[in-house]
Design goal:
Length: 361
């Protein structure tokens, strides 16, 4: 500035540059603040509305006015619209994108696990140019966790011109090898069937109202939003899975408690039956064994279990004639005790001095 207060051209340029830098910093701070606020909202959002929240956040923060979120249908090997903004519902009718190479850049972004910027579309080749008259757009997959993508990671910003270079380095499921002899579509089917493949949806977006180019800052903000969203959704899914597992575990525990109670009741009944059988059996064994000058008899009975199946007795049939029996009754418990009772009654009824042991038995 001279003595008259005039600003030189160099100073004007510096001042203009500083104003631009200041405006850029203000925009960056605003964007970061909005991203943080969106992240807070996502953490508290209803799981059914979380994808819609992401779409609205992308529109408000980055300025994409047409957005489609596609579900990855593994069974039918295709992409189908899940939620959208800037389109009529009728425009999504019968809109299906195959997951093979014919699906174009949006399917390549899934298997490369990277965003792709399509800077210029071609009428005959591009699905979105043909259907929605889109001249340029961005596609970006949403993954639940980070997975390895490239063996060669020279570039982070993928464009349609660089797909051919990186296509051979598509993701491989961890711990599994993909058969190199398969066709590319069969190879992709094998990849998405792996439990390590965590991509469930992919975003497509463009600008029609704001005819401004997509900048590196736009992409940086977009990747930040989608990455945070993927982590939040993965955490929600894990929490829901744990809740479901916990509910199932409670159900199993309840069933086990019922079974355990039934077992305790059955055990109690068995113990009662065994006690009754033991009482019956002990009552059947001789309480006093005959003693004579000519015969000395002694018996000790120690069952291996609570109730044995053995029976013995010594009794006088006629004066001077004695019967001695030792038996092993099949089974333990009340049933064998009943058999012992019948044997004791019959034996003492039928035994006589005229019949020997063989005939008596």
């Amino acid at each position: 500035m001279d003595t008259n207060g005039n600003v030189s051209s160099d100073e004007e340029k510096k001042l203009s540059f500083l104003k631009q830098e200041n405006e850029l910093l203000k925009n960056q701070l605003l964007t970061n603040s909005l991203v943080n606020e969106l992240t807070k909202v996502l953490h508290t959002a209803n799981p059914d509305n979380i994808y819609r929240t992401i779409i609205l956040g992308i529109k408000d923060i980055i300025g994409f006015d047409r957005i489609i979120l596609f579900d990855l249908n593994k069974n039918n090997f295709c992409l189908t619209p899940k939620s959208w903004l800037g389109f009529k519902d009728s425009q999504m009718d019968d809109f299906v994108i195959p997951l093979g190479f014919e699906g174009g850049e949006i399917t390549d972004s899934i298997f490369l696990n990277k965003h792709i910027i399509v800077e210029e579309t071609y009428q005959d080749e591009d699905i979105f140019r043909n259907r929605f008259d889109s001249n340029s757009y961005v596609v970006l997959p949403l993954v639940g966790r980070t997975i390895s993508t490239y063996e060669n990671s020279e570039k982070n910003n993928m464009t349609s011109d660089s797909i051919e270079k990186y296509a051979p380095n598509m993701i491989q499921p961890e711990g599994n090898s993909v058969d190199a002899s398969l066709s590319e579509n069969d190879r992709r089917k094998q990849i998405i069937a792996s439990q390590d493949f965590k991509t469930n949806c992919v975003f497509w977006m463009d600008r029609t109202e704001k005819n401004v180019p997509i900048t590196g800052e736009d992409i940086s903000t977009l990747v930040s939003i989608i990455t945070q969203s993927g982590i939040i959704i993965e955490n929600i899914n894990m929490y829901n899975a744990l809740e479901k597992a916990n509910i199932n575990l409670h159900g199993v525990n309840s069933q086990l408690q019922i079974v355990n109670q039934d077992l305790r009741n059955a055990q109690s009944k068995i113990e009662m039956d065994l006690e009754q059988a033991k009482t019956v059996q002990q009552g059947l064994l001789p309480q006093q064994i005959p003693k004579t000058p000519a015969l000395n008899i002694h018996a000790t009975y120690i069952p291996a279990d609570a109730v044995g199946g053995d029976y013995y007795d010594a009794f006088e049939i006629e004066p001077g004639i004695y019967g001695i029996i030792i038996a092993d009754v099949s089974g333990h418990g009340v049933a064998s005790a009943l058999i012992m009772t019948m044997v004791k009654v019959l034996l003492k009824t039928l035994a006589n001095s005229n019949d020997g042991p063989q005939k008596t038995l």
